[in-house]
Every structure is written in structure tokens, then in C-alpha cells.
Amino acid sequence: MRILIVNPNTTASMTEKAATAARAVAASGTEIIAATSQMGPVSIEGHYDGALAIPGLLSELKERWAAGYDAAVIACFDDTGLDAARSFADVPILGLCESAVATAGFLAQRFTVVTTLERSRVLIDNLVRRYGMGERAKVRASDIPVLELEDPASGAIGKLRAEIERALAEDGAEAIVLGCAGMTDLARELQDIYGVPVIDGVSAAVKQAEALVSLGLSTSKRGSYASPLPKPFTGAMGVFAPAGKLG
């Protein structure tokens, strides 16, 4: 089984962090392939960044199709471009937020998602509600720009831990979801510190992708995720004109 991990931002170190987390949990027969978007923002913080990251994401999905992959994981907790990718591809596509909150729901009645900035908190809160977990989850922002997670001297980890401690004390959280792909390397350490399940979206998405492929299941192509209708696209978007299916 081959699972493609696509980072929709252009920061290669974040791709490697996600790939390392994916390989740590992947089954022995699963190959993890990592890809970094070649166009768009260096980090995704809010709707504007997310919209401009989608073309690069779709390009990576298309360009790597010839080499083959059985499922793909979009390595951004905003689930950037997830609906477009599912329409575009003929294999299962997993998003970090959807995978993480589904996993948290198996483990706890109440949980808190701790993310980076306030603008991301609002976006993720909307996603959590869309995924049916609005009554069971709270979303908190820790006031950390995404790229500060790459800098050990930034104080980001202290801010993250302080917000987790508030979630446990004030929200009645029974589990914590890390709401950014840049936090993926911290899950095990934080779980040991706080004694509650700490869910990383990359790991959750990889295991769910493996399950779907093993079950022979993929995204329905009837209705909302049907392959895009062939039509001309103009200007710079011409390269994305659909031919009816991926490849």
C-alpha cells in the first residue's frame, strides 16, 4: 500500500515532520510518500492562505498519480482543498481535522482542539461542527504563528502547553486534539505529560487511510464528489481543466 502525504504549504521541513509521524504509525506493508506543494503560501493561516494553497495541492496529487498511490492525506489541519481533492481523485483522500476529531470521538465524550491563531480557531470550529462534533468539542487558539512551531526558541511549546492546561481545567476535556500539522511531533510527549489521549491528525489520517484501502473502499463518485465535468478553464487556471477523472 502506498499513501501520499501532501503538504499544501511550501515549507519542506513541515512536510518531513508529517512524513516522520506518518512512518512511525504506518503498518509494515505501507509506504509513505511525502510531497511539498511547489506554489502557494509558506504556511496556511486562515481562508486566504487556504484558497491560494489549493492549486499547488491539486498539482501534487495529479503529478504523482503516474507513480501510483492508494490513498492521500492532506497535511493541513484546515482540511485545505479536501472537497476539491476528493472530487479530483479516484482514491480515498483524508483530511487531518476530520480524521482527528473522528478518532477523538472514539476515545472521549468531551475533547478540545488546540490550534495556532484565532483566525484558524474560527475556521476549525466551523469544521468541527460540520463533522458533527460541535456539541462534544471546544476549539482553542494558543496564539502561535505556524512557523514559530519550527523555532525551538520561539516559546511556542510553552504557549501550547498553557492552552492545553486551560482546556483540561476549564473545558472538562477528556482528550486533546493537536490542531496543526506542525504539532505532530509533540503528541506522544504531551500525552505522557498530561495523562489523557492526545491525537495528532497525521497519525489518525494515515491509520484511517490504511483501513479504507484494506476494506476496498474509496470516495463515492456519485453526487457531490463526482469527477469534475470536462470544460475549458481560462488564464493561469488552464492547466487545471478537468478531463473527467484524475490523470
Mean pLDDT over all positions: 95
Strand order of the largest sheet: 2-1-3-4
Number of helices: 8
Radius of gyration, taken over Cα atoms and rounded to an integer in Å: 17 Å
- DSSP E strands, number: 8
The helix/strand class is alpha/beta
Largest pleated sheet: 4 strands, parallel
Given as residue ranges, the uncertain stretches (5+ residues, pLDDT < 50) are none
| Relative helix content | 40-55%
Distance between termini? 19 Å
Beta-sheet strand percentage? 5-15%
Elements, N to C (H/E):
EHEHEHEHEHEHEHEH
State the shape.
globular
Structure summarized in a few sentences:
By secondary structure, the protein is α/β, with parallel strands linked by helices. It is 40% helix and 15% strand.
Lay out the secondary structure:
Elements: E1 2-7, H1 12-25, E2 31-36, H2 47-63, E3 71-74, H3 82-88, E4 93-95, H4 96-107, E5 111-115, H5 118-130, E6 137-141, H6 156-170, E7 175-178, H7 187-194, E8 198-200, H8 201-214
Parallel strand pairs: 1-2, 1-3, 3-4, 5-6, 5-7, 7-8
What can you tell me about this protein's structure?
α1 (12-25) crosses α8 and α4 (96-107) packs across α8 (201-214). The chain is built from 8 helices and 8 strands, in the order βαβαβαβαβαβαβαβα. With 247 residues, it is of the alpha/beta class. The protein is globular, with a radius of gyration of 17 Å. The mean pLDDT is 95. It has a 4-stranded parallel β-sheet, sandwiched between helices.
